[in-house]
Design brief:
With about 90 residues, the chain is of the alpha+beta class. Helices cover about 30% and strands about 35% of the residues. The protein has 2 helices and 5 strands, in the order ββββαβα. The protein has a 5-stranded mixed sheet with strand order 1-2-3-4-5. A hairpin with a 4-residue loop joins strand 1 and strand 2. The longest helix has 16 residues.
């Protein structure tokens, strides 16, 4: 399984390929921020850290773009609360 998270702006989501299919994080983008609205991991790989790898890769890309994050997805909000190195993106 790769840890390469890709941005798919045509579908407004970040994607991570898994053996069971795509893990996704849907978003809405504006000039300064990205609002993460929903994350989804294929059922066959739930509980194996796929969601965390997706969120980490996504947040790293958002940081590189110089944007802020608005976590409307509870999984993303919980991840940021457990990882203080990403709190400055809020």
């Amino acid at each position: 399984m790769t840890d390469t998270v890709t941005d798919n702006p045509a579908r407004n989501r970040f994607e991570l390929q898994t053996p069971a299919g795509l893990a996704i994080a849907n978003y809405q983008r504006d000039d300064r921020s990205i609002t993460i609205t929903h994350t989804e991991v294929p059922r066959a790989v739930e509980g194996r850290g796929v969601g965390s790898r997706l969120v980490r890769g996504m947040l790293d890309q958002i940081r590189q773009e110089g944007r802020k994050v608005i976590p409307r997805c509870s999984f993303v909000a919980a991840y940021i609360s457990r990882h203080p190195e990403y709190r400055n993106l809020l």
